[in-house]
Amino acid sequence: INQEQTNETTNTIPSGPQFTETTIDSNINPITENIALKEVIPSAIKETKSDNKITSLQETNEEWQLNNYEVVLDAVKKDGLTLQYVSENFQKKYPNVVIEAARQDIDSLKYVSPEFQNVNFKIMIEIVKENPFALKYISNDVQLKRPGIVWHALERNGSVLQFTSEQFQSLYPH
Asked: Rounded to two decimals, what is the model's pTM?
């Protein structure tokens, strides 16, 4: 595509050692047109301690994330713990990002709000069906409001009972 045929703009991706600059057609929505921006996905997605330079999602804001869905999704698929840098609104809009992060690293669920867990309880049930140890990160409040999440986890592995509150255990004796 040459510049005379389309209205091109240059989008600068946040700087860092693994980021590059890319040109995309401003008339195309990367999400709906499924344009992969994989060339801008950093190879390292955590803080680089040696030189205090930050890479990837930590330097991005919600607007950038919403405009770069594929990049965010690929980042959490590579390292689920990057979910800590994904805005709560992004997680609400694209709950599959939470699922992918949990599949990659169950500890990523510590970055999911109780509100998300409650509203998206069916997603949380699917996550505990895949990995019952996800129950460790389900808030006590959500466990009490949505006991089905706990029961699905317990069906898969009874040892996760340790991740329920005393209040839950007194209400639902085993």
From this structure: 0.66
Largest CA distance in the chain: 71
Dihedral Cα 90, 94, 98, 104, nearest 10 deg: -110
Spell out, as residue ranges, where the chain has pLDDT lower than 50: 1-54
Taking a C-beta distance cutoff of 8 angstroms, is the pair 68, 87 a contact?
no
Percent of the chain with pLDDT over 70: 67
State pLDDT tens for residues 5-30. Answer: 444 443 333 333 333 333 334 444 44
Angle between the 121-130 and 147-156 helix axes, to the nearest 10 degrees? Answer: 10
Could you give phi then psi for residue 31, rounded to 5 degrees?
A: -80, -55
Please tell me the distance from the alpha carbon of residue 85 to that of residue 102, in angstroms, as a whole number.
Answer: 14
> What is the b/e burial string over 1-32, where b = at least 16 CB atoms within 10 angstroms of the residue's CB?
eeeeeeeeeebebbebeebeeeebeeeeebee
